[in-house]
Amino acid sequence: MKGNMKEVKEVSPTRFADSALGKKANDVWEYIKVFADKSVAGLEDHVRNCPLENGEWSGERGNSKWKPDKQYIPQKMNPEAKNWDRILKQYGIDGINFRDGEPDFRPISKGDVKIKEFSSDRTDNFDRADMELARRHGCSPEKVKEWRKNNKYTWHECKDQKTMQKVPSIVHNNVSHRGGISEAKKGA
Fold it and tell me: Which H or E element spans position 34?
């Protein structure tokens, strides 16, 4: 503290920010603000793409169940203009559980597979998942792909960059989230 006494004596009661000590304090505050911003950004990263509107969370956003507004009509992959009430009833669910910002589509998945060599290229991942599911069922990858298209299903790429879930496109494409592609692109 002895080294700071000279700086304390120089402090004018009206211009603390302009004194040597005030300038040091300002530098410290700038460091704290930058550090705090990075910490907050990291904490929010896992919920960044979780739904914000047209529904509500049963608890913490990104770590609870998201329940869509039943009267809302989702816009993507919904040519019949079904509202969420009809969609949820069709698949026997009342919402989508999330953990650490990742949706759990297992209750509506028609096939989970693990793929090797996960890529940031969605087409490659879909082809690998079609091949793996075809191998399991003793059919061709083309048959799996045809079934997906005819029944309006898509592959959800999980954050672990291995697991692929075959889920209804109308649900998957209308529940905002970050998945495996986001992780692959950021180099996780």
Answer: helix 20-45
